Flavodoxin-like domain-containing protein (Euphydryas editha), 288 residues
Amino acid sequence: MSDTGRLIVLYGSQTFTAQEAAERIWRTTKILDFKGPVQAMDDYPISRLIHEEFALFVCATTGQGDEPDNMKKFWKFLLRKSLPSNSLVKLKFGVIGFGDSNYSKFNFAAKKLHKRLIQLGAKPLLDLALCDYQHDLGHDAVLIPWLKEFFTKMQIYFPKMKTDTLENSFVPRWKVSISKNTECLNGTCLNEDIYYGKGYKDNCLDAQCFELEKNIRTTDETHFQDVRLITLRTVGNDKIDYQPGDVFNIRPRNCKEDVDDLFKIFNTHKIDIKPHYYLLVEEYHDGE
Ligand SMILES: Cc1cc2nc3c(=O)[nH]c(=O)nc-3n(C[C@H](O)[C@H](O)[C@H](O)COP(=O)(O)O)c2cc1C
């Protein structure tokens, strides 16, 4: 029998905080020799969940107590009334909530997830972790001791599992390789324009749709953080629909001159990366 088994790490994250933590936790699980992926809940094939024995959920809350976009599909599925109350009897799990106690619906998404998993027959290994951005030490104040306890509980199931997580090797989530082939990859043609990739969201607007109205520094000049109040005005006929709680992301892009300079540096140093090469980014899978 192996010393460890499979432990999946699934996250719901709107602005990457919970995702970053999930990836960090997943690296720890690899150091402890557990198998299994780290994935956004919506990327995980949910029909497999009934076969899983161990899972960690890292779940942020957004909007007014809402679940992040990349777990909405997963959450909707879990809410199906037709699911029997013993659907997840095999599963032992932990939920780590990422929230901010300034919001009245503090960590709501994680609380709902924790409750629903129990309703479906899964067994919590620990109470849910309520990480709070308002804590002086940030989310880690709750996360670090909680994880320690979680892995102590895992030892009940895997008495021979490692306990030392201090190993220095870095476990990458992605495998990156260069494809010099100018043909499309796997029949899929990627965006040819290396200077200006379009955003992945449908409701992505071009920078030309906005004019800067105000850009005011809100922190004192002597303070180390430069925090800005930026006011944008739409120009032309573009209208944006928004509601309180919506988030506006600005996705910067590199200017053509900088990109060209980078390729000149590659060339000077005889690094074989050309503008027409593709970088193939694949998810790391251990034995799957
Ligand atoms: C627009 C917005 C709405 C939020 N709403 C809530 C909320 O209702 N409850 C809560 O506990 N935290 C709320 N938060 C705080 C986030 O949950 C917290 O910052 C978390 O670390 C974000 O994780 P993420 O970056 O993985 O999305 C909100 C944050 C933002 C930006």
